Protein backbone atom coordinates (compact mmCIF):
# COMPACT_ATOMS: atom_id res chain seq x y z
CA UNK A 1 0.00 0.00 0.00
CA UNK A 2 2.79 2.37 0.89
CA UNK A 3 4.68 1.49 -2.27
CA UNK A 4 1.68 2.35 -4.48
CA UNK A 5 1.38 5.82 -2.95
CA UNK A 6 5.04 6.55 -3.52
CA UNK A 7 4.80 5.50 -7.17
CA UNK A 8 1.39 6.60 -8.43
CA UNK A 9 0.30 5.34 -11.83
CA UNK A 10 1.00 7.61 -14.80
CA UNK A 11 -2.66 7.60 -15.77
CA UNK A 12 -3.70 9.44 -12.63
CA UNK A 13 -5.17 12.86 -13.65
CA UNK A 14 -4.42 16.01 -11.67
CA UNK A 15 -7.18 17.31 -9.48
CA UNK A 16 -9.31 19.97 -11.19
CA UNK A 17 -9.22 22.16 -8.13
CA UNK A 18 -5.43 22.34 -8.27
CA UNK A 19 -4.87 22.81 -12.01
CA UNK A 20 -7.94 24.36 -13.62
CA UNK A 21 -8.40 24.13 -17.38
CA UNK A 22 -7.45 27.32 -19.21
CA UNK A 23 -10.29 29.37 -20.72
CA UNK A 24 -10.89 28.67 -24.40
CA UNK A 25 -9.64 31.40 -26.74
CA UNK A 26 -13.11 31.87 -28.33
CA UNK A 27 -16.65 31.70 -26.94
CA UNK A 28 -18.07 28.21 -27.04
CA UNK A 29 -21.49 27.78 -28.64
CA UNK A 30 -23.58 24.73 -28.02
CA UNK A 31 -25.10 23.41 -31.25
CA UNK A 32 -27.31 20.36 -31.41
CA UNK A 33 -26.21 17.56 -33.76
CA UNK A 34 -29.12 18.25 -36.11
CA UNK A 35 -29.79 21.97 -35.90
CA UNK A 36 -33.15 23.24 -37.02
CA UNK A 37 -33.77 26.57 -38.80
CA UNK A 38 -34.91 28.09 -35.55
CA UNK A 39 -31.76 27.08 -33.70
CA UNK A 40 -29.55 28.49 -36.48
CA UNK A 41 -31.33 31.80 -36.37
CA UNK A 42 -30.94 31.96 -32.63
CA UNK A 43 -27.23 31.13 -32.81
CA UNK A 44 -25.25 34.10 -31.58
CA UNK A 45 -21.50 34.44 -31.47
CA UNK A 46 -20.63 37.63 -29.58
CA UNK A 47 -17.78 39.62 -31.07
CA UNK A 48 -17.69 42.26 -28.36
CA UNK A 49 -19.21 42.67 -24.92
CA UNK A 50 -22.87 43.60 -25.10
CA UNK A 51 -23.55 46.76 -23.07
CA UNK A 52 -25.73 46.30 -20.07
CA UNK A 53 -29.29 47.55 -20.06
CA UNK A 54 -28.26 50.31 -17.70
CA UNK A 55 -25.48 51.54 -20.02
CA UNK A 56 -27.76 51.50 -23.05
CA UNK A 57 -30.47 53.33 -21.17
CA UNK A 58 -28.06 56.00 -19.99
CA UNK A 59 -26.70 56.60 -23.47
CA UNK A 60 -30.18 56.83 -24.92
CA UNK A 61 -31.16 59.23 -22.16
CA UNK A 62 -28.15 61.40 -23.00
CA UNK A 63 -29.34 61.62 -26.60
CA UNK A 64 -32.83 62.61 -25.50
CA UNK A 65 -31.47 65.34 -23.22
CA UNK A 66 -29.22 66.59 -26.01
CA UNK A 67 -32.16 66.83 -28.42
CA UNK A 68 -34.28 68.59 -25.84
CA UNK A 69 -31.48 71.08 -25.19
CA UNK A 70 -31.65 71.95 -28.89
CA UNK A 71 -35.45 72.28 -28.52
CA UNK A 72 -35.99 69.31 -30.81
CA UNK A 73 -39.04 67.10 -30.31
CA UNK A 74 -37.47 63.67 -29.54
CA UNK A 75 -40.67 61.72 -30.17
CA UNK A 76 -41.16 63.25 -33.60
CA UNK A 77 -37.58 62.94 -34.82
CA UNK A 78 -37.22 59.35 -33.57
CA UNK A 79 -40.36 58.42 -35.46
CA UNK A 80 -39.23 60.15 -38.66
CA UNK A 81 -35.63 58.96 -38.39
CA UNK A 82 -35.46 55.49 -36.74
CA UNK A 83 -31.69 55.34 -37.37
CA UNK A 84 -31.33 57.94 -34.66
CA UNK A 85 -31.88 55.24 -32.03
CA UNK A 86 -28.64 53.46 -32.90
CA UNK A 87 -26.60 56.58 -33.70
CA UNK A 88 -24.02 57.64 -31.15
CA UNK A 89 -24.24 61.01 -29.47
CA UNK A 90 -20.86 61.96 -30.93
CA UNK A 91 -22.17 61.29 -34.43
CA UNK A 92 -25.12 63.58 -33.85
CA UNK A 93 -22.92 66.29 -32.37
CA UNK A 94 -20.76 66.39 -35.51
CA UNK A 95 -23.80 67.65 -37.42
CA UNK A 96 -24.25 70.53 -35.00
CA UNK A 97 -20.53 71.30 -35.21
CA UNK A 98 -20.73 71.36 -39.00
CA UNK A 99 -23.67 73.77 -39.08
CA UNK A 100 -22.12 75.95 -36.39
CA UNK A 101 -18.94 76.21 -38.49
CA UNK A 102 -21.03 78.05 -41.09
CA UNK A 103 -22.10 80.64 -38.54
CA UNK A 104 -25.53 79.21 -37.74
CA UNK A 105 -26.65 79.86 -34.17
CA UNK A 106 -27.57 76.95 -31.91
CA UNK A 107 -31.21 78.03 -31.70
CA UNK A 108 -31.46 78.00 -35.49
CA UNK A 109 -29.68 74.64 -35.67
CA UNK A 110 -32.32 73.16 -33.40
CA UNK A 111 -35.13 74.43 -35.63
CA UNK A 112 -33.40 73.11 -38.75
CA UNK A 113 -32.82 69.64 -37.29
CA UNK A 114 -36.37 69.49 -35.97
CA UNK A 115 -37.68 70.29 -39.46
CA UNK A 116 -35.39 67.77 -41.17
CA UNK A 117 -34.59 64.94 -38.70
CA UNK A 118 -32.70 62.97 -41.36
CA UNK A 119 -29.87 65.45 -40.91
CA UNK A 120 -29.26 64.16 -37.38
CA UNK A 121 -27.68 60.98 -38.74
CA UNK A 122 -26.07 62.47 -41.84
CA UNK A 123 -22.36 62.45 -42.58
CA UNK A 124 -21.27 66.11 -42.82
CA UNK A 125 -18.41 65.32 -45.21
CA UNK A 126 -20.70 63.44 -47.59
CA UNK A 127 -24.03 65.21 -47.16
CA UNK A 128 -23.43 68.77 -45.96
CA UNK A 129 -20.03 70.15 -46.90
CA UNK A 130 -20.61 69.49 -50.65
CA UNK A 131 -23.70 71.72 -50.41
CA UNK A 132 -21.74 74.49 -48.72
CA UNK A 133 -19.02 74.12 -51.34
CA UNK A 134 -21.61 74.45 -54.12
CA UNK A 135 -23.10 77.60 -52.59
CA UNK A 136 -19.69 79.16 -52.03
CA UNK A 137 -17.97 78.31 -55.30
CA UNK A 138 -20.70 77.71 -57.89
CA UNK A 139 -23.45 80.09 -56.80
CA UNK A 140 -20.80 82.40 -55.30
CA UNK A 141 -22.66 83.20 -52.11
CA UNK A 142 -20.32 85.06 -49.71
CA UNK A 143 -19.34 82.97 -46.70
CA UNK A 144 -21.06 85.34 -44.28
CA UNK A 145 -24.31 84.95 -46.24
CA UNK A 146 -24.34 81.14 -46.23
CA UNK A 147 -25.99 81.29 -42.83
CA UNK A 148 -28.79 83.47 -44.23
CA UNK A 149 -29.33 81.08 -47.14
CA UNK A 150 -29.68 78.08 -44.83
CA UNK A 151 -31.94 79.80 -42.31
CA UNK A 152 -34.23 81.08 -45.08
CA UNK A 153 -34.37 77.67 -46.74
CA UNK A 154 -33.25 74.75 -44.52
CA UNK A 155 -34.58 72.36 -47.14
CA UNK A 156 -31.50 73.05 -49.23
CA UNK A 157 -29.52 70.88 -46.78
CA UNK A 158 -31.44 67.76 -47.81
CA UNK A 159 -31.15 68.35 -51.56
CA UNK A 160 -28.76 66.54 -53.87
CA UNK A 161 -26.19 68.84 -55.42
CA UNK A 162 -25.98 66.87 -58.66
CA UNK A 163 -29.64 65.91 -59.05
CA UNK A 164 -31.37 69.03 -57.75
CA UNK A 165 -29.27 72.10 -57.03
CA UNK A 166 -27.03 72.21 -60.10
CA UNK A 167 -29.77 71.61 -62.73
CA UNK A 168 -31.99 74.27 -61.16
CA UNK A 169 -29.11 76.71 -60.89
CA UNK A 170 -28.33 76.28 -64.60
CA UNK A 171 -31.99 76.85 -65.51
CA UNK A 172 -32.16 80.02 -63.42
CA UNK A 173 -28.99 81.41 -64.98
CA UNK A 174 -30.36 80.81 -68.47
CA UNK A 175 -33.63 82.42 -67.41
CA UNK A 176 -31.87 85.63 -66.41
CA UNK A 177 -30.58 85.28 -62.85
CA UNK A 178 -27.10 86.56 -63.71
CA UNK A 179 -25.11 89.73 -63.11
CA UNK A 180 -27.06 92.16 -60.93
CA UNK A 181 -29.92 89.64 -60.84
CA UNK A 182 -27.74 86.70 -59.78
CA UNK A 183 -28.86 84.28 -57.08
CA UNK A 184 -28.22 85.66 -53.59
CA UNK A 185 -28.94 84.51 -50.05
CA UNK A 186 -32.44 85.95 -50.52
CA UNK A 187 -33.20 83.87 -53.61
CA UNK A 188 -31.40 80.58 -52.89
CA UNK A 189 -34.86 79.25 -51.99
CA UNK A 190 -35.42 78.91 -55.74
CA UNK A 191 -32.68 76.27 -55.95
CA UNK A 192 -34.81 73.65 -54.18
CA UNK A 193 -37.57 73.87 -56.81
CA UNK A 194 -37.88 71.26 -59.54
CA UNK A 195 -37.31 72.68 -63.00
CA UNK A 196 -39.81 70.40 -64.72
CA UNK A 197 -42.45 70.17 -61.99
CA UNK A 198 -42.36 73.67 -60.52
CA UNK A 199 -40.46 76.36 -62.40
CA UNK A 200 -41.40 75.67 -66.01
CA UNK A 201 -45.13 75.18 -65.30
CA UNK A 202 -45.31 78.59 -63.59
CA UNK A 203 -43.52 80.32 -66.43
CA UNK A 204 -45.81 78.59 -68.94
CA UNK A 205 -48.90 79.62 -66.96
CA UNK A 206 -47.91 83.29 -67.06
CA UNK A 207 -47.36 82.99 -70.80
CA UNK A 208 -50.90 81.65 -71.23
CA UNK A 209 -52.26 84.81 -69.60
CA UNK A 210 -51.00 86.82 -72.55
CA UNK A 211 -47.62 87.98 -71.29
CA UNK A 212 -44.66 87.79 -73.65
CA UNK A 213 -41.62 85.85 -72.51
CA UNK A 214 -39.62 89.03 -71.96
CA UNK A 215 -42.45 90.33 -69.80
CA UNK A 216 -42.42 87.15 -67.72
CA UNK A 217 -38.65 87.31 -67.30
CA UNK A 218 -38.78 90.94 -66.17
CA UNK A 219 -41.65 90.23 -63.78
CA UNK A 220 -39.84 87.28 -62.20
CA UNK A 221 -36.55 89.14 -61.87
CA UNK A 222 -38.35 92.01 -60.16
CA UNK A 223 -40.30 89.65 -57.91
CA UNK A 224 -38.52 86.25 -57.70
CA UNK A 225 -41.17 84.99 -55.30
CA UNK A 226 -43.43 84.47 -58.32
CA UNK A 227 -41.62 81.19 -58.95
CA UNK A 228 -42.53 79.95 -55.47
CA UNK A 229 -46.28 80.62 -55.62
CA UNK A 230 -48.87 77.94 -56.31
CA UNK A 231 -50.75 78.20 -59.59
CA UNK A 232 -54.02 76.90 -58.14
CA UNK A 233 -53.87 78.60 -54.74
CA UNK A 234 -52.26 81.89 -55.73
CA UNK A 235 -52.00 82.80 -59.40
CA UNK A 236 -55.36 81.60 -60.68
CA UNK A 237 -57.67 83.11 -58.01
CA UNK A 238 -55.78 86.42 -57.93
CA UNK A 239 -55.75 86.74 -61.71
CA UNK A 240 -59.45 85.95 -61.83
CA UNK A 241 -60.29 88.58 -59.20
CA UNK A 242 -58.02 91.16 -60.83
CA UNK A 243 -59.54 90.73 -64.29
CA UNK A 244 -63.20 90.19 -63.37
CA UNK A 245 -63.79 92.17 -60.17
CA UNK A 246 -61.18 94.89 -60.54
CA UNK A 247 -61.45 95.16 -64.33
CA UNK A 248 -57.68 95.25 -64.33
CA UNK A 249 -55.28 95.36 -67.23
CA UNK A 250 -52.35 92.97 -67.66
CA UNK A 251 -50.11 95.97 -68.19
CA UNK A 252 -50.60 96.89 -64.54
CA UNK A 253 -49.47 93.44 -63.44
CA UNK A 254 -46.34 93.87 -65.53
CA UNK A 255 -45.61 97.09 -63.65
CA UNK A 256 -46.43 95.62 -60.25
CA UNK A 257 -45.86 91.82 -60.20
CA UNK A 258 -45.65 92.03 -56.40
CA UNK A 259 -49.46 91.96 -56.51
CA UNK A 260 -49.25 88.17 -56.26
CA UNK A 261 -47.37 88.34 -52.97
CA UNK A 262 -50.29 89.98 -51.12
CA UNK A 263 -53.12 88.05 -49.48
CA UNK A 264 -56.25 87.97 -51.61
CA UNK A 265 -58.66 87.65 -48.68
CA UNK A 266 -56.63 89.60 -46.15
CA UNK A 267 -55.62 92.65 -48.16
CA UNK A 268 -56.55 92.75 -51.86
CA UNK A 269 -60.31 92.21 -51.58
CA UNK A 270 -60.94 94.37 -48.47
CA UNK A 271 -59.01 97.35 -49.78
CA UNK A 272 -60.46 97.14 -53.26
CA UNK A 273 -64.00 96.94 -51.87
CA UNK A 274 -63.43 99.99 -49.67
CA UNK A 275 -62.25 101.96 -52.68
CA UNK A 276 -65.25 100.85 -54.75
CA UNK A 277 -67.62 101.66 -51.89
CA UNK A 278 -66.43 105.26 -51.81
CA UNK A 279 -66.02 105.59 -55.56
CA UNK A 280 -62.23 105.81 -55.54
CA UNK A 281 -59.50 104.02 -57.45
CA UNK A 282 -55.79 103.57 -56.88
CA UNK A 283 -53.03 101.81 -58.73
CA UNK A 284 -52.06 98.37 -57.44
CA UNK A 285 -48.89 99.66 -55.82
CA UNK A 286 -50.70 102.57 -54.14
CA UNK A 287 -53.43 100.26 -52.91
CA UNK A 288 -51.22 97.47 -51.56
CA UNK A 289 -47.73 98.70 -50.65
CA UNK A 290 -48.78 100.89 -47.74
CA UNK A 291 -49.68 99.71 -44.24
CA UNK A 292 -53.27 99.51 -43.02
CA UNK A 293 -52.85 102.77 -41.13
CA UNK A 294 -51.48 104.58 -44.16
CA UNK A 295 -54.19 103.16 -46.40
CA UNK A 296 -56.95 104.29 -44.03
CA UNK A 297 -55.36 107.73 -43.72
CA UNK A 298 -55.20 108.02 -47.50
CA UNK A 299 -58.82 106.93 -47.79
CA UNK A 300 -59.92 109.58 -45.27
CA UNK A 301 -57.90 112.21 -47.10
CA UNK A 302 -59.56 111.28 -50.40
CA UNK A 303 -63.00 111.50 -48.81
CA UNK A 304 -62.26 114.94 -47.35
CA UNK A 305 -61.09 116.19 -50.72
CA UNK A 306 -64.26 114.87 -52.28
CA UNK A 307 -66.36 116.77 -49.73
CA UNK A 308 -64.38 119.95 -50.35
CA UNK A 309 -64.87 119.62 -54.09
CA UNK A 310 -68.62 119.20 -53.61
CA UNK A 311 -68.80 122.31 -51.43
CA UNK A 312 -67.04 124.32 -54.09
Write down how many β-strands occur, each being a DSSP E stretch of 2 or more residues: 0
Mean pLDDT: 85
Instruction: Please tell me how large the radius of gyration is.
Output: 35 Å
Q: Indicate the structural class.
A: mainly alpha
State the helicity in percent bands: 55-70%
Proportion of residues in β-strands = under 5%
The poorly predicted ranges are: 1-53
N- and C-termini, Cα separation: 151 Å
The helix count comes to: 16
**Mind describing the biggest β-sheet?**
none
Q: Report the order of strands and helices.
A: HHHHHHHHHHHHHHHH
Shape estimate: elongated
Describe what this molecule looks like in 3D:
There is one protein chain. The model is unreliable at 1-53 (pLDDT under 50). This protein is mostly helical. The chain starts with a helix and ends with a helix. The protein is elongated, with a radius of gyration of 35 Å. The chain has 16 helices and no strands. The longest helix is centred in the last third of the chain and has 20 residues, at 292-311. Among the domains are: 196-261; 262-311, no CATH class. Helices cover 58% and strands 0% of the residues. It has helices spanning 2-6, 37-42, 53-69, 74-80, 89-100, 106-115, 124-138, 143-152, 161-175, 195-208, 213-222, 231-245, 250-255, 264-277, 284-288, 292-311. Belongs to the mTERF family. Keywords: Transcription, Transcription regulation, Transcription termination, Transit peptide. It holds the Pfam family mTERF.
Amino acid sequence: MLTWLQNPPKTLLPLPSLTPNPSPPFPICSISPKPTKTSLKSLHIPTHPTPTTTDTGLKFREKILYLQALKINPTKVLELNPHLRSATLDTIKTVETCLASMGIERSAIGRILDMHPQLLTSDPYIDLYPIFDFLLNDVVIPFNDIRKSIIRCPRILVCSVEDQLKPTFEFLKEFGFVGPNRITSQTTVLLVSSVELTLKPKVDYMLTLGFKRNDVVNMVLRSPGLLTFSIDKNFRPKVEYFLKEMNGDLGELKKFPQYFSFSLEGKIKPRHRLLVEHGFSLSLSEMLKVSDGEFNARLIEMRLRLLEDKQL
